[in-house]
Amino acid sequence: MSLWYKISAAAVFLIFASLQVYSEQRNASTSSEDARISHQYINFALEACDTVEKNIPEITKIGEVMASRFLAGGNFIGLYNGGAFPGQGPINEVECRAGGVMFHTGKREDVPAQNFAFMGWQRDPNPKDIDILRKRHEQGAFIIGFGPKNLQSLAEHKKLCDAWLDTGFGKDDTVLTLSNSSRTGHVNNLMNVLNAWAVMAEFVAACTRQGQMPVMYLSIVHNENDWNKKYMAKGGGVHDDIKVPPIPPGVLAHRYIEAVRGLIIRFGDTQLPAVEKAASLIASEKIAGRDTVVAYNGHSLNESVGMAEDSWAKFIEFFNFYGYANPSSMLQYVKKTPNDALVLRIDQTGMHYNDWCVFVGKNQRLIDVTGPNNAALRPDLGPPKEGCLVSIDLGYEFGDAALSIDGYPIKVFPPSGVVQSVVYECINAEVMAKLAALK
């Protein structure tokens, strides 16, 4: 029996063992509060993880094509809808992303015929999307589409994609029914994010099986940013200084799904009282004729918030680079948001005291949704929680990276996009349920 076979067999055994533990955890977590609509959405999110996991063999094949092209001189191309940031799909979630791959950076003579591209949709495409796809298709890029395969307006777009990862839904991507028979709980974005990171995990694993380890980004919340500076100066790509053991097919994607599944279960078990309180505040604002500002910093919700039935939400990006100078974002926030507003702040890690000063200066009331800070490393990212009306903990480790790879010195693959998406949909579902009960 070969060493490779032994490794693969052991990995599969561990995966199934973890699935058994997960099944027991989920049964325990869903034994109570099932009537709460946010808990219903959590149950769907766990089923979404199951769906992606069942599709990992196909995802692995896509990752292997990407790896072969990358190591033959190709590069990743993010195709933004309409040619403009941030786009509907998961491109913003994976490109230039902490915990993600530092693809070849700067000016580089890549091989266009070996390139590979992502394009994704939550809803109807931008009119420019078909020409963007056609151009890359004619150049020979391997194009992976993400989105609702049954959406009729994407029929011609699908023909230009070499692979497609389906959300399982069409134009109506809601999974929850309210007391007034209206619908909520959107899933296209969540499925796109899960699929995108599963593909990226299998791409990295496929590279390791060809003797190469892609360079990965370290989150800017770490002060030791010499890592990013060092490898960006070298142009990204693959390491010439770090070797890791080959990772068997499917293992890394399974591990990522297992990690985010655990975070979703944890959220459902510990944070729903806070979600309920936040939703009550938001619903009361809407009843009083006032919208809630959604101050967002992340990569997964830019084209989701306030674009469906969630008319209570007024989206604005508030990205202060965790204390690094970004006066433009702060100035826009100050200009565009009203004093005394209720603010749903959704971030990735802690809160810089500069941001806190902006909220206090505008006398805004704060619902804070973010990942935990490491006070020893970043004391500037920990404002007093007693200043917030509600605090919701996203639960992952400081640095927003879910997985360790044997022989690699930093953790990789961020869970924040998945968890932020689940949390927002849960809050919105609770708000819509409260508003529906009044009609």
Describe the structure.
The chain is an alpha/beta fold and 439 residues long. Helix content is 42%, strand content 12%. It is built from 13 helices and 11 strands. The strands form 3 sheets. Strands 8-7-9-10-11 form a 5-stranded parallel sheet, with helices on both faces. Strands 1-2-3-4 form a 4-stranded parallel sheet, with helices on both faces. Strands 5-6 form a two-stranded antiparallel ribbon. It is globular and about 60 Å long. It starts with a helix and ends with a helix. The model is unreliable at 1-9 and 11-34 (pLDDT under 50).
Quick synopsis:
The chain has 439 residues and is α/β, with parallel strands linked by helices. It contains 13 helices and eleven strands.
Helix content: 40-55%
Strand content: 5-15%
Order of helices and strands: HHHEHEHEHEEEHHHHEEHEHEEH
Uncertain segments are: 1-9, 11-34
Intertermini distance: 67 Å
Mean pLDDT: 90
Give a topology summary.
Blueprint: H1 3-29, H2 37-54, H3 56-71, E1 76-78, H4 91-94, E2 116-120, H5 129-138, E3 142-147, H6 155-159, E4 163-166, E5 174-177, E6 183-186, H7 188-209, H8 226-233, H9 251-270, H10 272-287, E7 292-296, E8 313-317, H11 327-336, E9 342-346, H12 353-361, E10 365-370, E11 390-393, H13 416-436
Parallel strand pairs: 1-2, 2-3, 3-4, 7-8, 7-9, 9-10, 10-11
Antiparallel strand pairs: 5-6
Helix pairs in contact: 1-9, 2-7, 2-9, 2-13, 3-7, 7-9, 7-13, 9-13, 10-13
